[in-house]
Amino acid sequence: MQTSPKLRMTTQRQVILEELRKLKSHPTAGELCQIVRQRLPRISLGTVYRNLEILSRSGVVLKLDVAGLEMRFDGTVDNHYHVRCLDCGRVADVEMGLLEGLEQTISQHSDFEVLGHRLEFVGHCPACRQAQAHA
Ligand SMILES: [Zn+2]
Ligand SMILES: [Zn+2]
Question: What's the per-residue H, E or C state across 88-135?
């Protein structure tokens, strides 16, 4: 993964990006801020948030922005699918290849030139299902 040459990498931005890329959990800005503070103790949530916005605009970070839900961030920007828990909001990657032919199908059924796709599945995660079973 190359970073955009136009993107200026401050130390803060570099640390935020490094820590996000280590995670598979698609953290919120607040969750990531807690982790980044282990290396940069005085960094504020506002700074983390602002840097995440800049990184996502530059395409090195993926912003998972679903209306009405807290924004989450992903260090993996290659197209991949997500499954989101409707109870706790956890987002996991789905380990599968891309659905070949999907974009072609959409092109055939709309008058858009289709350049890509985003897909998110929703359901109940194992921890929430277990909690439900014991409730
Ligand atoms: Zn859950
Ligand atoms: Zn992901």
Answer: CCCEEEECCCCCCCHHHHHHHCCCCCCCCCCCEEEECCHHHHHHHHHC
